[in-house]
Automatic annotation (TrEMBL):
Protein's name according to its UniProt entry: HAD-superfamily phosphatase
Residue segments, region Disordered: 212-258
A GO CC term attached to the entry: cytoplasm
Species assigned in the record: Linnemannia hyalina
One annotated GO molecular function: phosphatidylglycerophosphatase activity
């Protein structure tokens, strides 16, 4: 399972260079457990869409991250059939015969959007799914600023960034690096006082966010980056050493046979 190259996404992302606030979410939470779905609905957000990988499931996973079970139930109780998953893997042309989408619909009990264009493009396909609901009354929740947040902001949805990922294990290495970079850029934009475009529906953050994440610490994230790089280097060195030992023992055994 995997994602093909997202050229549209990369091209769209260049728009962010001229308008950086496009990647700034309206709301930041640690993960979906911090969203008060009842209050969000009361505020006028009557439909909600979620990214999948590292927002609801582990990367390329087909099951809900178990600690999210109660939050997910609350979301489905409040939003009923106005919940949909928009993934850049499941439900796209990469998903052969929609097998992943079907599996996720079975385990997460909500629809997975079948769509041609990958985020941050393709908002029309989501708006068509929520026919009759204006973009301003839809929330988009995801862990990636350059795909999920830009996607939602492009179309005027309320954007919610989940800052703590489910796991970095098994994630696409490129996505992993870009996400860390996004967090640093968001911290920088915050320091520059570049905020998200105000959403037409006034949202009382104290009501809809149960617990905000700590302020972005770019230094800490840089440290985490460095530590991950060190681990990767060490693993590569160990693998090379194992290979060299194997080669050496093969050569020795060939010599022994002569
Ligand atoms: Mg994701």
């Amino acid at each position: 399972m995997g994602q093909s190259f997202n050229l549209q996404g990369i091209l769209q992302s260049f728009r962010v260079l001229t308008s950086p606030r496009l990647m700034v979410p309206n709301i930041v939470v640690r993960d979906i457990r911090d969203i008060n779905f009842e209050q969000l609905h009361k505020a006028g957000i009557i439909a909600i869409a979620f990214d999948k990988d590292n927002c609801l499931t582990k990367p390329y996973g087909l099951e809900l991250h178990p600690p999210f079970k109660d939050a997910w139930r609350r979301c489905r109780d409040v939003y009923k059939d106005q919940v949909v998953i928009v993934s850049n893997s499941a439900g796209t042309p990469d998903d052969k015969d929609g097998q992943q989408a079907q599996a996720i619909e079975h385990t997460l009990q909500v629809n997975v959007l079948r769509h041609q264009k990958k985020k941050p493009s393709g908002g029309e396909e989501l708006l068509k799914h929520f026919s009759g609901i204006k973009a301003g009354r839809i929330a988009f929740v995801g862990d990636r600023a350059l795909t999920d947040v830009v996607f939602g902001n492009n179309y005027g949805m309320l954007t919610i960034l989940t800052r703590d990922v489910v796991t970095e294990e098994g994630d696409n290495p490129m996505a992993l690096r870009i996400r860390r970079m996004e967090h640093r850029v968001l911290a920088f934009l915050d320091r520059m006082n570049i905020k998200a475009k105000p959403h037409p529906i006034p949202i009382d953050l104290h009501a809809v966010v149960l617990q905000s994440p700590p302020a972005p610490e770019s230094k800490e994230e840089a440290k985490a980056d460095l530590a991950a790089e060190e681990t990767r280097k060490k693993k590569n060195e160990e693998a090379s050493e194992r290979e060299a030992n194997l080669e050496r023992s093969k050569r020795d055994s060939v010599r022994g046979e002569k």
